[in-house]
Amino acid sequence: MTVLKTSLRNFLAHKGRMALSAIAVLLSVAFVCGTLVFTDTMNTTFDKLFAATSSDVTVSAKSASDTGETTSDNGRPPVMPASVVATVRGADGVARAEGTVFSTSVTVVDSQKDNLSPKSGAPTIVGSWNGNDARTMKITSGTAPHGSSQVMVDADTADKHHLKLGDEIDVISAVGTHTARISGIATFTVTNPGAAIFYLDTRTAQETLVGRTGVYTNVNVTAAKGVTDPQLKRNVSAAIGGTYKVQTAKETADANQKDVEGFLNVMKYAMLGFAGVAFLVGIFLIINTFSMLVAQRTREIGLMRAIGSSRKQVNRSVLTEALLLGVTGSILGVGAGVGIAVGLMKLMGQMGMHLSTDDLTVAWTTPVVGLVLGVVVTILAAYLPARRAGKISPMAALRDAGAPADARAGRIRAAVGLLLTAGGGFALYLASAAAKATGGSLWLGLGVVLSLLGFVVVGPLLAGGVVRVLGTVVLRVFGPVGRMAERNALRNPRRTGATGAALMIGLALVACLSVVGSSMVASATDQLDKTVGTDFIIQNDGGQPLVPQAVKAVKDTPGLKRVTEYKSTTADYTTPDGKTLKDTDITAADPTYAIDLRTKTVAGRLKDAYLPNSMSVHDKFAKAHDIHLGSKIKVAFKDGGTAELTVRAITSSDGLIDQGAKYTSIATLARYVPADKMPLDELVFASAKDGQQDTAYKALKSALHDYPQYTVRDQTDYKQALKDQIGQLLNMIYGLLALAIIVAILGVVNTLALSVVERTREIGLMRAIGLSRRQLRRMIRLESVVIALFGALLGLGLGMAWGATAQQLLALEGLKVLEIPWSTIVSVFIGSAFVGLFAALVPAFRAGRMNVLNAIATE
């Protein structure tokens, strides 16, 4: 009880000094809890949606996916004859069976040709209005669609795009373009995460999406009273045989949930990873805080020891303060985490993914995880300072001598740090020299961990040399004040090393990712320059194929010399070594693709792969299956027949574009795959007649005005798009890393604030002999700047080493250009100086306000 009282008194006495450490714990815990609440809420939202929209039993075509996703290579959903509905109705236990048709391989545009599809990645669904959908949607304006001229839209999409009754829209599918006017608006009775949904009447949906009537994509079956879903599934399966896919509501919901689970898990663990970085940075803040508090209470600890307190009691007293700090910060962090989750939901709403706070889910595990994590990390961080406090002898403490310097411990620390750094450097070297990316990535991970730990441990040793160099370059121009700032930074190398290490971690990751991102853009640009021989690339950025009418519009564009279609599908291969490879990719293109993409070959000529019954393979595939020029491969095409194709070319696997592709001609594909099963074009390449590039570019954009889902890019546009995509990803990552950098800034502020308190008497004496307030504040600001630059220098150097090693691994996958983004590196380094200035504002202001006489009288 005495230890608790003492710890509580010390905690409250230093509450101002503890505040920044508590904020670090709060931020880290809040980010973890916010991530968990946000992803749990998304899971709840999708669970409710899938449970509400799934019929008791669903019957679909055998080739349909378990999730009900209807995207197919030919742009039309897999269907079954309408006669199936009557058969299902006759099964035991069926109360109602209704045929429906829907597709997600569609684009919907308004009268101005603006795309109404969600930008969040959620699907656009066009289907027939049916009883199952009526359970989860309520018509709030107008009427359900009747006849081919009417369409109904969901309320969220109508609000977002300012649609109203009577507005004209176009539904663009592989069948053609269908025009209708909005007859009704329906509102979800459950949360719609962001899909855009349009309803036609059944006959119109069949004609628009499939191209013929008398077929359905699904049969929604409702169980009779007292019949369970598994029983109903068995009865329906027995009635229709094994020709079709039959799923219960739970199976359909589980399949849909599994489909979104991958995306949610990636988001969840990525955000938790950044929270872990923030926790790691926070550890340095807490260690520094308690180390300095222990140093400032040396005499107090000596008195405690003199009156009978044992080492364990002193140790326990410091750890109890850490426990109070951890509990306080964690409790506040859990509450802040819920706020962060709500903020993320609002942010996703701005991006088009609607999440309702009614579904806000705070599992009991979330606050437990936050509390345990925050408390454990805080206590572990405070353990070393607590142990150091317990070692102070009573007589040394009463003389205010502090803990005696342990030269042996310093030498051991330096040796361990150098050993870890050398081990990390060797692991990075092995990664850069690896023959395979998979093996090299393991060495890269080991190298990152060891080199980071090594720099952290050896930081105090590096501080002496690096700070002196920085002092010579940056501080000496400020005269005596600069030299005093340099000496202050060097006074306690361990403290400077720990403070700089906190900033080092975040900036190392920034530098590493900047190098990787810049190298990816430079490599892709280099490959485009070397291999792409076409002027224009037409594609859907969402990954959907081009509908035939859009391809025709491209071909009819004046000023073009050639147009190349590019399709892909899968097939089962039987190779010369007797192996059968299921669902293997194969690319079909026009013969002009050999001109549009200058692919390097190691044997034969690529243009020969487009001869009848011919193909190409890449060299790794050829080596693995004993394939040579003239070898025969049996290819059983998806939805088609089996061909025996002759290998006419073997391409190099070193390229980045179409790496590992196996080519054949569209004509060959068409011989074995029926016309109604032929895959749509993934891309279309176009080249202008000589001297007409600008005219053709404008003409292509005009020709595709009615198809806003497709983008026309010349090579300059394509390079910029790649740069923008990688830049957006990096900006998002930098935003997440900002949490760790904020915690690191708090660490600098805390170190300076406690350092000012520690040097109160010294500051008073300096003021007494003539140091002005302005000079004092400048000295503290310069000290902060040099500590920040120390951390930045280590972080940026370490990060560039990691990034360069990662690029060597990417080179094995075709990304061969190493690009160091010097502008980013220099900007971050200069920005670190401003971080140091910002961190010193409050400590410098407080130091300048000290009363000289009171400061001198301080013991």
From TrEMBL:
Pfam families: FtsX, MacB_PCD
GO MF terms held by the record: transmembrane transporter activity
UniProt name for this protein: ABC transporter permease
Organism for this UniProt entry: Streptomyces mangrovisoli
Stretches the record annotates as Disordered: 61-81
Residue ranges occupied by any ABC3 transporter permease C-terminal domain in the UniProt entry: 274-394, 736-851
Biased composition (Polar residues): 61-74
Cellular component, GO annotation: plasma membrane
Family to which this protein belongs: Belongs to the ABC-4 integral membrane protein family.
Record localization: Cell membrane
Domain MacB-like periplasmic core: start-end pairs: 19-237, 499-698
UniProt entry keywords in alphabetical sequence: Cell membrane, Membrane, Transmembrane, Transmembrane helix
Residues spanning the membrane: 269-295, 322-344, 364-386, 414-434, 446-479, 500-522, 732-757, 782-802, 822-845
Membrane protein topology class: Multi-pass membrane protein
